[in-house]
Amino acid sequence: MTFSSVxxxxxxxxxxRHNASLKSNLNTLAQELSTGRASDLTAHLGADQARVSGxxxxxxxxxxxxxxxxxxxxxxxxxxxxxxGIEDHRAAAAGALLTITDGSSPAQIQDAAKVAMAxxxxxxxxxxxxxGDRAMFGGNDMSSNPLAPAADMMDELRTxxxxxxxxxxxxxxxxxxxxTAGGGFDTLxxxxxxxGAPLQRAADDARTIDIEARADDPAIRDALKYFAMGAxxxxxxVPLNKEDRTALQQDAGEGLMTVSSHLTSVQSGLGSxxxxxxxxxxxxxxxxxxxxxxxxxLVSVDPFDTATKxxxxxxxxxxxxxLTARLSRxxxxxxxx
Length: 337
Fold this sequence. Notes:
Layout: H1 8-35, H2 41-45, H3 49-97, H4 106-127, E1 130-131, E2 134-135, H5 150-161, H6 167-179, H7 184-189, E3 200-201, E4 208-209, H8 218-232, H9 242-299, H10 303-328, H11 332-336
Antiparallel strand pairs: 1-2, 3-4
Helix pairs in contact: 1-10, 3-4, 3-9, 4-8, 4-9, 6-8, 6-9, 8-9
């Protein structure tokens, strides 16, 4: 009679390999049940693998647009914050300058001038503020500070008005310095680029946004002009009598009141752009959500089917342990008994 047998060592290795296979299957099914996703996507997807790859590429692209959009939104928030700071300085200086009357003392005129000077410095600081490593209000030039230092500009203005015959001359000189094409502000004050900032994509479509707010905006020029006017009214280098100094500060205060609406217009323009960015972010979020759901449907596993398989493998493993334990107790002595 012919028979075959399995040696003890071979049986041992066979048992170990079967045990390892069952444990591996158990761990895989447990992972799939807990995550809801197939562990072997290639085997699970089959012909749908190309669809998942396409969805992954789209999600990666949308992630890039979302990050860019988020940065643009943060940039606009910082620009609005800078303009709000200018408005605070404008309100403070206007209030101080408009309290000056013919009966104001030189000390009161000097105090109002200090508030105006703080406003001038505040505008320069706000316009030169940066978002990361880029200047926010310099147009196409994102590396240089858009405005020259406040002290440098005030020195130039002090020199320009040093020969003025009265407060009317001072106002005319300041108007020419700030608002005449090719004047002092264009050549010495503004150091940015007159072109707009680089266009930003609003979302993953062809729409773009143009951030036009710059430090040479007429509202910023006028704010600086009236701040300088109020500060120079108390400057000893300016040859004015008390009446002229008073009149100059009164005009500066009134001018700062009119600047308020102009600054609001700049902020409103940025607000409109912020609305476009938010709309773009909403579209990107919706597309990302839709694609993520589609991808999840492709890579997910049936929880009921997976749980059934897990129970079957668990039963096989328990049976394997039981049989192994019984086989380990087999001996000739037990058989002869």
